[in-house]
Specification:
The protein is mainly α. It is 75% helix and 0% strand. 18% of the residues are buried.
Length: 249
Amino acid sequence: MSAAGRGRGRPARDRGQGGANQGGAGRGMGQIDEALQMPNPNAEQVPMTTYIRDIRKLGAIKFVRAADPLKAKKWIDDMEKYFEMMDCTEVQKRMIAAFFLWGEARQWWQTVTRTTVDIAAMTWEEFKTQFYEKHFPRSVRKKKGIEFMELEQSNTMTVSDYEIKFTELSRFAPHIVANKEHKIRKFEWGLISHVKRLVVGYRCDTYAKVVECAMAIEENNNNIFQKKKGVTVTKERKRKGYFLRSSRK
């Protein structure tokens, strides 16, 4: 075969190889995407001591007992926050959480392990259900939900104080805060009257905006009050000075 013939033959092979390479690259990217969406198969192989060490570094603390049920809820919330940073299974999450149970909480957990048929298969969600029944009972959650529904800003509370309490208790009324419009209107409804009257007129469409609006109105009201107070004090001082000068004459 002539050199020209061989030259004409090469592009066909090159094109074939290029197409194969492109197809391989496409399949490779697809495999990477698929792997990123799948749970880590090596999670089971990581020693539990490594997970314990890592979650301690994140700030996990032991749970003994909670006189205030809200502290029990906070402990669970904190553990879930730490788990978001860790690549472990639902069963491993339960094992890690159980490790941090001490004192009275540990005694309770030992009772659970003795009375649960397949404790080794218990997941984090199942653990939370058991934990809440003991340390954060339904009656307390219902009471907190009612407290949220009746929450109003008192004369001694700033808008910031009210917002903090609103956020704290809103966890117990998910059916309200899950709806953006209902959450905004509930916040407005609980504001002190002279602030609420102005906030409602703005028809804020996000929770952040209604909080910001209420704080701005409160600050403006405080500034006006301070100016009026200053004028009153000045007039009072002038009045006292007039009587003082008159008494000297």
